[in-house]
Amino acid sequence: MTPEPQTGLEMRASDAERERIADALRDGVAEGRLTMEEFEERLDAAYRARTHAELEPLVRDLPVPGRPAAAPVPAAEGGWAERIGGTPTSRTGIAVMGGFQRKGRWTVARRFTSFVFWGGGEIDLREARFEDRDTVIRCFAIMGGIQVTAPPDMDVQVGGVGIMGAFDHSGSGEGSPGSPRVTVTGLALFGGVAVERKLRKEERQRLKEERKRLQAERHAERRELRAERHAERRERHAERRERRGSSERPSLEKRDWD
User: Fold this and answer.
1) Residue of higher predicted confidence among 162 and 228
2) What is the pTM of this model?
3) Which residues lie below 8 Å from residue 194, measured CB to CB, with a gap of 6+?
4) 114, exposed or middle or buried, with CB in 10 Å at 0-12, 13-18, 19+?
5) What InterPro entries has UniProt attached to this entry (predicted)?
6) Who wins on pLDDT, 169 or 2?
């Protein structure tokens, strides 16, 4: 039997097409069309999408071009390339009845192991460098919790197991071209390991400032439009008074003549 031809929406999406949708969503939140929560939810869905049908609804209500069937746009790897390579600053994170943090500008070892017992750990990859493009983060949480935070454009695969606990796989998803590949694995026993995606602080701040700038521009445009409308009303009012005055003059002159 000859297979039926695929429609455009059934076609597999490429990394470049996912990145184009991500750019459209960034424009949407910068212009105030999306809330930050909507943006993060849609961006996560964009990097998870496998087909055009999954990408299409994410920008359907945005007045921007960028449908997935468009020609691919070459993606630049410069940003990620600058963050891969170097001597790791940390290979382990351990907390026993306490806590540990790995966040900010640190260099992740290609094999990073974390362990908590009656404690908590935080592993933030949003501003981190990476010793190697392929990184494995092993998380073992026993009656405790570990939080792993990755940027939305990072390739993250989660494969841990929860026994009488929870190992959250919702943070899994492909990243932008050139991003490091991070595999999160391990065990949660009477505890939990959560993997989530969040924007970098700089990106959040940039979008916030861009939103403020656009709001200020819209306020200025509205003030200018109100001023123009007020001037038009005054001009129409003056014209009506002038017409009324010119229509009254002949009757007055006729009365004087009589």
Assistant:
1) 162
2) 0.56
3) 145, 146, 147, 148, 166, 168, 171
4) buried
5) DUF1707_SHOCT-like
6) 169
